[in-house]
Amino acid sequence: MNLVKIRIIISLLVFTLFLFLFWGGEKLSVFLSSTLLPFQFVPALIRILTKPAALFVFGFVLIIIVSLIFGRVYCSFLCPLGSLQDIIIALSGKIGWRRKHSFQKPHNWLRYCVLGLTIVTAAMGSMSFLNLLDPYSLAGRMITQFVQPLFVWIYNTAVSLMKNFNIYLFSKETAYLPTYVWLVTLGFFILILIMSVRYGRLYCNTLCPVGTLLGLISRVSLLKFGIDQIRCYECVRCEGVCKAGCIDPQTAIIDQSRCVNCFNCLAACPQSVISYSPSLNKTGQSDWSAARRGFLIGSVAAAGSALFMFNSNIRNLLGTAHASQSPPITPPGSVSLAHLTQSCSACHLCVSACPTKVITPSFLEYGIGGLLQPLMNYSKSFCDYECTVCGRVCPTGAILPLSLEEKKFTQIGTVDLLKEKCVVYVDKNNCGACGEVCPTHTISFIDKGNVLYPETDIQYCIGCGACEKACPTTPKSIVVRPNLVHKKAARYIAKTFPVQQKKAPQKDFPF
Q1: CATH class for domain 412-491?
Q2: What is the three-class DSSP state of 228?
Q3: CA–CA dist 14, 20 (Å, integer)
Q4: Is the peptide bond before 475 cis (omega within 30 degrees of 0)?
Q5: Other CB atoms closer than 10 Å to residue 280's CB: what's the count?
Q6: With 206 labelled, which of 153, 302, 330, 344 sits at a CA distance of 20 to 30 A?
Q7: Taking a C-beta distance cutoff of 8 angstroms, is the pair 143, 84 a contact?
Q8: How far, CA to CA in Å, does 153 sit from each of 150, 170, 182?
Q9: 146 Cβ contact list (under 8 Å, min separation 6)
């Protein structure tokens, strides 16, 4: 079995696992999150910076070591977006959309500027560039917003059909319902689709910050591709199968920084003049110099961008401190608004795994710095009192895992009863919807003339949103206000009253 077949098998296996990660159910998602995501570059890096875990440290170090030895094998073997692009390229070739690949001049200005801006903005506390461009997160959003709803629709249709035959063994599932936020992901999908069909792995070598960074590392990798210029008779078959467009037949030079190690050139060369072996410099001095100039240009651009850090207006624009006067409520385990927005890569795994679908993507609710990161949407659902899934699947530590006992006393917000809108206070009619669903005894009722008036004690409230979701009024007469830093709710202790024991009646017995 040659290297091309091995790469295809491994990349398809990894992509299949990613599909199960996002729509395989709670237990499978939790398991795959802890075993698969430590070997994804950005989640492992962020996790190391937030809350280091041994497996994530091992995965990140392994990626660096493998890149130093073999080059950009991560892009072809482990990256889910890379696998998706390979699938698009293969399918477009089958139906005749794709033309032959050809050498493309490197867009060093663009790739290094994007990398520099991504690093600088992330250091400033804005994850916007990284959220939009990270290949793992982008693939996750595509699966959550396109693939998962499609499969859930097919599954629910099958369940409905079985009910016609009196088969009630399965229940319907729910999926994230796309809103206008999905237009951002749709735009990137169309961009990647066009790039993949026409230019192969162009996204990986122009916009992807991970690909650019690993490309820099691959310049000094032990194993490199090289062409024996003496034996080569310029059949250009290698150029036609190079998805990265990094083989220049005119100079017989392979740009190692853009090569994604697909090994297609090795299989296509009829004379076996292309080798993959240890070498100090198989890319040629001229190629190295041109790429080095591009790198220096990008570095200068990144350094210039760093000057923005000293401008308070731009910091406020990129940051989340002034996102809005009423910022969103963040999921339990996210610690604070600042922790979430500075640690989340917007992969939407929590959105996909949430059983009640209360976690939805934001747009600009957190400001530009928190683009597409998750929030608690109580207009759609509520946070299950007995659930801790989001913290167990989050790979970056933006939502830390909580035990069920900890989660039940984590106060992400507090309830606010708007009596001027409440149907009980306004119309003097009994309702009680909020109190029936409150799991923490935050809401109690006072009987006044056979009408039960709701009252709240926020020390017990955890901000789950069940009361807000259940409230029948429009607009809601009971809402949850966020805690920018999560707190601990008080434990409810039921009031007990001493039971007066009656003494047994004394009986007079005759002697």
Answers
A1: alpha beta
A2: coil
A3: 10
A4: yes
A5: 7
A6: 344
A7: no
A8: 5, 14, 17
A9: 185, 189
Instruction: Give, in degrees to the nearest 5, the angle at Cα 287 between 283 and 291.
Output: 115
Residue 76 near residue 214, CB atoms below 8 Å: no
Write down the pLDDT at residue 493: 79
Q: Does residue 307 register a pLDDT over 50?
A: no
State pLDDT tens for residues 364-400: 888 888 889 999 999 989 999 999 999 999 999 999 9
- Prediction pTM value: 0.85
CB–CB of 15/87 below 8 Å? yes
Distance CA 461, CA 440 (A): 6
User: In the block, which residue shows the tokens 């190295």?
Assistant: 288
The count of other CB atoms within 10 Å of the CB of residue 297 is: 15
Q: By percentage, how much of the chain surpasses pLDDT 90?
A: 57
Longest pairwise C-alpha distance within the chain? 132
H-helix or E-strand spanning residue 240: helix 237-241
476 sits in the region (left: phi over 0; alpha: psi -120 to 50; else beta) called beta
Q: What is the spatial distance between Cα 329 and Cα 438, in angstroms, rounded to a whole number?
A: 18
Task: Give the end-to-end CA distance of the chain in Å, rounded to a whole number.
Answer: 109
The domain locations on the chain are 3-318, 412-491
Residues paired with 278 in a beta bridge: 223
Two structure tokens written together for 88 = 């698009």
Say how far apart CA 372 and CA 436 lie, in whole Å. Answer: 33
User: Position of tokens 């650019």?
Assistant: 212
Instruction: Extract the tokens encoding 445.
Output: 């009722």
CA atoms within 13 A on the CB side of 218: 27
Which two tokens mark 92?
């477009």
The residue among 25, 117, 24, 43 whose CA lies nearest residue 398 is: 43
What's the token pair of residue 15?
């992509």
Paired residues of 275 in beta bridges: 226
